[in-house]
Amino acid sequence: MSACRRGEYSYIAIHKRNNYKGPDSGALFIFNMFYQNTKSIAFPGVKEKLASLQARIGNTPLISFPNIFRKDQVMVYAKQEWKQLSGSVKARAAFAIVRDALERGQLHPGKILLDATSGNTGIAYAHIGKFLGIPMTLCLPENASAERIEILRSLDVKLILTSRFEGTDGAQETARALAENKPDQYFYADQYKNENNWKAHYEGTGVEILRQLPGITHFVTGLGTTGSFIGTGRRLKKKDPAIRLISLQPDNPLHGMEGWKHLETAVVPQIYDPWLADENLEISTEEAYEMIKTVHDKEGLILSPSSAANLVGALRVASQIEKGIVVTLLPDNADKYGELIKKLLK
Hints:
346 residues, Rossmann fold, 42% helix
């Protein structure tokens, strides 16, 4: 027999549930494997709502920067990840995490989704939660941009602001303590170790890049939760082991790229694979800020600090090769960084 699809009952599985003694002894096992917990059915119309959300995630367009970089036989492209639900790359991981929790029955009526975030994953959770009717509690460093905090509160998120000096590491500690103290109240999503984080990019971002640019030779992106780099990188390497993977990090712990981690001094996400990258580069906050100004002046786009930093890394790689296609991600645009952008572009 074919395996049951999530959200549907197979003919045999239903009969096994009703004590039908048919010839397929494995049917009940398959039924139990896919339906260990069916609490997700308690959310009215959840299957249809998830399908509606999924249609708004991924399939982001590619852009190039012809006024910034031109070199014979070398091309640089970036995926505009803000052109999807919630306006950032984090929609991919947040949706995968929530969907899996619903399907497994870990998230159901009476449970609150809890996680730590630097902002973008939280905003993605909030959009998804608002649509599905799932309450959210998020731990966020107090120095997150005013726009991020305002957006989260407008989406009915309960915010717990943590020390600016501890960054997302401190936010994780706070979230973990809450989950341990009240396990019946919270589903702790824990994006930094949740396998659905990188899998969202393995099944989505990497596949899209290979479809859009089958000749890709280099993939470059920054490390935060590390999900984008790990998932996309694994998919690209599976297709062609010759594709070079270059990870980016800030050059010091006190940096201005929200969402990025300086792994030497931070808590390393459990999903991170230190052996995957072919090369690791350091990017300074100053380089990222200068790139924001350059892209604004020459291309008419306003990038976020992390997007600008990714572009700095991609252009550095492109300048060092004689032939190839370099691809990076633009995690979000500048909509949530108003105060900083005003200072840089005054």
